[in-house]
Amino acid sequence: xxxxxxxxxxKGLIVSFLLKTTLSLNPDDPNVCSHWESYAVTVQxxxxxxxxxxxxxRCTDILNWFKCTRHRISYKTAYRRGLRTMxxxxxxxxxxxxxxxxxxxxxxxxxxxxxxxxxxxxxxxEPGWGGTDCSSG
Length: 137
Hints:
By secondary structure, the chain is mainly β. Among the domains are: 41-88, no CATH class; 94-136. Helices cover 14% and strands 52% of the residues. It has a two-stranded antiparallel sheet with strand order 1-2. A hairpin with a 2-residue loop joins strand 5 and strand 6. Mean pLDDT is 86; it is low at 17-22. Residues 1-24 form the signal peptide. This is Multiple epidermal growth factor-like domains protein 11. Keywords: Cell membrane, Disulfide bond, EGF-like domain, Glycoprotein, Membrane, Repeat, Signal, Transmembrane, Transmembrane helix. It comes from Pelecanus crispus.
């Protein structure tokens, strides 16, 4: 029992390591699933920044030498950092499969003793062997 538990833990570690690798999966592999994911990108964007522009006009104010102060809102181009949400299609192995190179390989919970794993938790036994894990002769 301890030996089987050790193998199960080892398989789990191997699978988690393989899932974290970022190799490109073969899109023709029928065991590759994909989904859309969003991610944020920092961009520099321009905008119209308002400011108070002071100017002078001729007027009837004799104390200011016939010059009056006026204000108007003007705009100048300024820049700021912003976040933009982008989307990308992400490929991953379908449930029950793990990544190996650029293919998705089926995962069998029990080791196929005298056979090979052909789909999730399904062993194809060598001639003369049977059972769920191909251990019965």
